[in-house]
């Protein structure tokens, strides 16, 4: 730990590994009063945590973090991912909101479908390292894109089930994820899907408190955010979940706009044009774009979803439709999604051990080091929006 | 609010018994007896009043949410259970706690802005160097084991407002009582709902004769009433079923009886607040400022 708010501390007791080893060797850690009054107890604890892990090779690097493979010192077979948050070296501007949010929420959330945060430690060069659960089997995006991998309705049901449980758990704890997309859904060695990257997450605002609409990667962003809504709910994550569902079925993103404006018009073409009739209040949203009545697409019904997504079956199409309602108030909540008939119908979801697999440690490195809201490949690589600190509420 | 209080790090790691807290502080004192005798500081609660007033000054300059100030105060408390205040520059820790709390409560301020405003208030103790604050933030997060979510009692108050049909005056007074409890150790001793209920009881029972604007603190409005009657007043009010306002109080008592809230803890909180208001009479901003200033300057803690 850095000794910043403390004035005088001799350099010899700055936290470095040899010092910690010496402490350990002399047996003077937690039980006895420490022989060195300057060595803060928390520094020892931090050093102990750091000593618990061994950092191995680098898995990936992004704008926001470097991810390493690591393992427990005591047990070389127990792998972890160590995400070292980059600090701006030139001028230290404090930790970014992404890092803060990630630590903040992962410290409190513990669920089989949310990536586990085992430990947090800091190093002498003032970097924060998060020790995360190691998820070696890549992400859903890889599975979707890999033409060599065949998967079917039962597999999709298994993946969607895990996603829905993870999202439900976040919402139940008043946390919005705000960046659900296939490459944030990582796969554990036992096949379990885990929601990762909480860099854009936040707790539900108190009623009437504004939030930013500049969240969620564009293709997975719901219409209310594209229209600039500043007050919204878990429905934003449910829309993203619906888009992931559609993408799993089609194996390509379902509505992939080039710009925010293009995204809005693609959503209108696909699902129908929002009007005061099908979405009361929509015209009052800050960035609402009036539509030409002559070109309005009527709200799509059940047949459309059945036609577009034949592999989902009629009940699956019904679930998807409930997740893609334009009006967020009419959209299913995470609980309603989980209570849908589809889950109990045949085919039964594939058991985890039988799910199609792919190994992708490099991918985990990339996924974890990316900044929230970025699409990391394709023609939109540079289109990622930077979050505006001032506008963020 | 985020996550579940009952499973939270606040409940698991940052809730102490009175004895434990005293032990921790004795431990800190034992390790540095000399500095303690060299640099006496006022009663912890008086220091808290001073820090609170400084935080409010800082917050006012940037129109911050009340909740961020509350979170910052809890961060200070947590930090100083692990570190001896005499080893730190309290002004830097204070500013950092404020900066981090703003990010946590989703009302972030730019680090340069925070440093600029803090320098405006305490030019002798805060340097131009933004990196100092960045480093201290890092230290603060480490010392708190990255456990950053704080559950506050304000929500209990607003949620029970309708159930207990509280008037807007009572809510305002209850809110001020909650603001005041951050000046005590209560945030480290009791869960937020107990404190919220304590605030409601005080607001309903000790309703001052001249309701109006209580400002940030309920001290002026309540100190006299509470001192005169003290706990007898409370006990009397709670058992009296005929006096003025009796049906309201009766309803509250009924509700408390049916709830599973730890009444003993609520009474303890009330007493703690009462003694805060007594200590408050000795508060002198100048005195706190001098003692802290002398300590920081002679130990070169601001460098």
TrEMBL record, chain A:
Q: Which InterPro entries match?
A: CDK, CDK7, Kinase-like_dom_sf, Prot_kinase_dom, Protein_kinase_ATP_BS, Ser/Thr_kinase_AS
Residue ranges with Polar residues bias = 7-20
Superkingdom as given in the UniProt entry: Eukaryota
Q: Name one Pfam family in it.
A: Pkinase
rRNA processing as UniProt keyword? no
Q: Where are the transmembrane segments?
A: none
What molecular function terms (GO) are annotated for this protein? ATP binding; cyclin-dependent protein serine/threonine kinase activity; RNA polymerase II CTD heptapeptide repeat kinase activity
Name the segments for region: Disordered. 1-38, 346-382
> Where does the record place Basic and acidic residues bias?
351-374
Location of the active site: 179 (proton acceptor)
Q: Name one GO cellular component term.
A: transcription factor TFIIK complex
Give residues annotated as binding ATP.
59-67, 83-84
User: Catalysed reaction(s)?
Assistant: L-threonyl-[protein] + ATP = O-phospho-L-threonyl-[protein] + ADP + H(+); L-seryl-[protein] + ATP = O-phospho-L-seryl-[protein] + ADP + H(+)
Question: What residue stretches are annotated with the Protein kinase domain?
Answer: 53-343
- Record's SMART domains? S_TKc
Biological processes, Gene Ontology terms: positive regulation of transcription elongation by RNA polymerase II
**PROSITE patterns xrefs:** PROTEIN_KINASE_ATP, PROTEIN_KINASE_DOM, PROTEIN_KINASE_ST
Name the UniProt key words of this record, in alphabetical order.
ATP-binding, Kinase, Nucleotide-binding, Phosphoprotein, Serine/threonine-protein kinase, Transferase
Q: Does the keyword Ion transport apply?
A: no
The text of the family note is: Belongs to the protein kinase superfamily. CMGC Ser/Thr protein kinase family. CDC2/CDKX subfamily.
Name of the protein in its database record: Protein kinase domain-containing protein
Organism whose genome encodes this protein: Penicillium angulare
From TrEMBL, chain B:
List the GO molecular function terms: cyclin-dependent protein serine/threonine kinase regulator activity
| Annotated GO biological process | regulation of transcription by RNA polymerase II
The keyword Transcription regulation appears for this protein: yes
Q: Where in the cell is it found?
A: Nucleus
| InterPro entries xrefs | Cyclin-like_dom (IPR013763), Cyclin-like_sf (IPR036915), Cyclin/Ssn8 (IPR043198), Cyclin_N (IPR006671)
Q: Where is the Cyclin-like domain?
A: 53-142
Q: Which sequence ranges are marked TM in the entry?
A: none
Domain of life of the native organism: Eukaryota
Q: Which UniProt keywords apply?
A: Activator, Cyclin, Nucleus, Repressor, Transcription, Transcription regulation
Q: Which Gene Ontology cellular component annotation is one that this UniProt entry carries?
A: nucleus
Q: Which CDD domains match?
A: CYCLIN_CCNC_rpt1
Report if keyword Repressor is assigned.
yes
Q: Spell out the family assignment given in the record's similarity comment.
A: Belongs to the cyclin family. Cyclin C subfamily.
> Quaternary arrangement and interactors, per the entry?
Component of the SRB8-11 complex, a regulatory module of the Mediator complex.
The entry's function note states: Component of the SRB8-11 complex. The SRB8-11 complex is a regulatory module of the Mediator complex which is itself involved in regulation of basal and activated RNA polymerase II-dependent transcription. The SRB8-11 complex may be involved in the transcriptional repression of a subset of genes regulated by Mediator. It may inhibit the association of the Mediator complex with RNA polymerase II to form the holoenzyme complex. The SRB8-11 complex phosphorylates the C-terminal domain (CTD) of the largest subunit of RNA polymerase II.
Name-wise, this protein is RNA polymerase II holoenzyme cyclin-like subunit
User: Which source organism?
Assistant: Penicillium angulare
